[in-house]
């Protein structure tokens, strides 16, 4: 289940695009928001601030993303981990 929407910021009138992915058989919703760069006022908010504002309005809780990490070296971590 996927939803893509175009919306306009009420304060800056900057248009943005939001993509929402509703995970099947789960309550998790993944989403991202991108400003439409050619529009005036598009850079008034960063994408992170825009996503945080939408998350709060929708009353979604933050869910930290965990990676399956295994150390390849004993003493230090490398970029190859």
Give a quick rundown of the structure.
The protein has 1 helix and 3 strands, in the order βββα. The chain is an alpha+beta fold.
What does this structure look like?
The protein is of the alpha+beta class and 81 residues long. It has one helix and three strands, in the order βββα. The chain has one helix spanning 47-58; strands at 2-8, 15-22, 29-35. Strands 1-2-3 form a three-stranded antiparallel sheet. The radius of gyration is 17 Å and the shape is globular. The protein starts with a strand and ends in a 23-residue tail after the last helix. The mean pLDDT is 75.
Structure keywords:
81 residues; alpha+beta; three-stranded antiparallel beta sheet; 1 helix
The number of strands is 3
Shape: globular
Radius of gyration using CA atoms only: 17 Å
User: Helix/strand/pairing class, anyone?
Assistant: alpha+beta
The major beta sheet can be summarized as: 3 strands, antiparallel
Enumerate the strands of the largest sheet in spatial order, edge to edge or round the barrel. Answer: 1-2-3
Oligomer: single chain
Q: How do the helices and strands follow one another from N- to C-terminus?
A: EEEH
